[in-house]
Model the fold of this input.
Amino acid sequence: MAQTFNIISLPLPLNMGMVNCYLIKTAAGFILIDTGGVNARKELLAELEKAGCKPGLLQLIILSHGDFDHTGNAAFLRNGFGSKIAMHIGDLGMVEQGDMFANRKKPNFVIKLLMPIFSKFGRSERCTPDLFLENDGDLSEFGFDARIISIPGHSKGSIGILTADADLFCGDLFENTKAPGLNSIMDDLKEARSSWRKLAELNIGMVYPGHGSPFPMASLNLEKVS
Done:
């Protein structure tokens, strides 16, 4: 059975935009890349039901990084669907402590104070992943012909998922809300540029970002990171 996937676009808090999750259907069940935020739980559940993804069928939740708008429903889905959660250990503090700056440069006091209120990432959303994903890790044991690519920059533990069909799910390294390019929010721009150069050496067809529409990898201008 060929792998197919649905794009699930969910609202951010306060109508600040949309975030993408990707539901992959395999012969063994379903895999969800990112989960949206707590504010969009009802919409996410409706999309899973529409796709036929019921409790017991969601094998794995892959978190591209630790931000609340990608991880907010991971613990809830694990409890309700019996799924395993997987992510890079570099962003562990973000989901275990509920601190979006656990491994980032520290923000000013006001931003740090307001973030838990804005994100609604409370104690019940905190979790410890079941699996840690490393660079070049293979996902075939879950019926998903894909591998993990470490792409730090937006966060230390940011990963991409590159399929055998040359599709890249890139989390928040890239975005396409206005035009394809690096995400406007970066913790380490030097690392982000290095991750971009790394991806440019791989065989990648389409890129599926955390925010915005899919785009061809070839549409990115590598000269911007030289």
Q: What stands out?
A: The mean pLDDT is 94. The radius of gyration is 16 Å.
